[in-house]
Amino acid sequence: MNLSQRLETVIESQTLAMTKMAREMKEKGMDIISLSIGEPDFNTPQNICDAAYSAMNAGQTHYTPVSGTLEFRKAISDKLKNENQLDFGPNQIIVSNGAKQSLLNAVLAILNPGDEVLLPAPFWVSYPSMVTYAGGTIVPLDGLPENNYKVTAAQLESAITNKTKLIMFSSPCNPSGSVMSESELSAWVEVLERHPHVFVISDEIYEKINYSGKHISIAKYPSMKNRVAVVNGLSKGYAMTGWRIGYMAGPEDLVKACDKIQGLMTSGANSVAQAAGIEALNGKQDSVLEMKVIFETRRNLMFQKLNEIVGLKNINPDGAFYHFPDVSSFLGKSYNGNKINTSDELCLFLLEVAGVSIVAGTPFGSPNCVRLSYATSEEMIIESVERIGKALSLLN
Ligand SMILES: Cc1ncc(COP(=O)(O)O)c(C=O)c1O
């Protein structure tokens, strides 16, 4: 079939591809541990599920407005005020089918063909395809390991041109787990104040999984107020990936533009999931804290186990649920006479020989690294990292 050229701008997510390959191998009866998955292994807290049952039984089963129910947008507005000191009214908020849709809505609403988009690397796998799908040009900025894979204000300054329309980043970051500190954000803001034509998409989906202290949004700086779209959602912090609820808060004209795009594509998000979302934000937060504590224990365990592997260079991350070690010392080595040249090939080797599925850093813009998710049990963390260590020791 003669399909559209637009499809060539979209690269299949390697995280999803690796997860699919691991699942298929498991289904064939092979002993595979998957560390490629990007979702909490916990089920959604009971109070949130109960709210969904109640909403369903009360007949909240109809279309909602495209941008989400007023009640849910009010709950999001209150959350942003109380937790993040951000002032966005319900008219400045749109609810979507996951943070992913909010991100794509915003990118499509902001970019014209040829606009440059700064992507601090490592970046989330889906950002480049979103940008190219919208006709934009990607300008990757390398976050260096010595700065915990974060981009400095000086790097930002030197990359901005008069064509730069947007900068898009996540903090806590998927894949590096890095968290932008208040002083790092302030330094970015100083640069951005000198370049008022640059808009910011701040992806804060891992807000609740931050071990370094309080989450800070770049939107809290008064000079950034009308220049930031804050994207967040319930998937990671509330273990609600399957419910598909995300949102964007930003300038009202951008929200209206996103409403137009989303109205064309999917209309309002699931009504029952939105009702559950109100309970997630307004109800007790114990489960969120409990999950974070468990993630932190697992992070430390995986850090300790990875440190036992000679040749891996790793940093203990401040947030999210991934380790992102540098594997460059293994590249160029061979297994059974076959040379392993890239982190992608190294991941395939580990899948075949160790039976562990992880993701290469290449699609995240950091080809020397690999991403391991620790959203799994302590037992699996120990077993999988030991298997990886054994397999890597076979390379020569
Ligand atoms: C950095 C980042 N942003 C956005 C998303 C999308 O989240 P959602 O499941 O709410 O669409 C993900 C999911 O993996 C993510 O890692």
Radius of gyration: 21 Å
Number of strands: 14
Helical content stands at 25-40%
Order of helices and strands: HEHHEHEHEHEHEEEHHHEEEHEEEH
Let me know the CATH homologous superfamily of the largest domain.
Type I PLP-dependent aspartate aminotransferase-like (Major domain)
The name of the CATH topology of the largest domain is: Aspartate Aminotransferase, domain 2
Strand content: 5-15%
Small molecules in complex? pyridoxal-5'-phosphate
At CATH's second level, what is the architecture of the largest domain? 3-Layer(aba) Sandwich
Oligomeric category: single chain
Number of helices: 12
Assigned CATH class of the largest domain: Alpha Beta
Enumerate the strands of the largest sheet in spatial order, edge to edge or round the barrel: 2-8-7-6-5-3-4
Number of individual domains: 2
- Write down the overall mean pLDDT: 96
Distance between the termini: 46 Å
Secondary-structure-based class equals alpha/beta
Q: Main beta sheet: strand number and arrangement? A: 7 strands, mixed
Shape: globular
- Low-pLDDT runs of 5+ residues are none
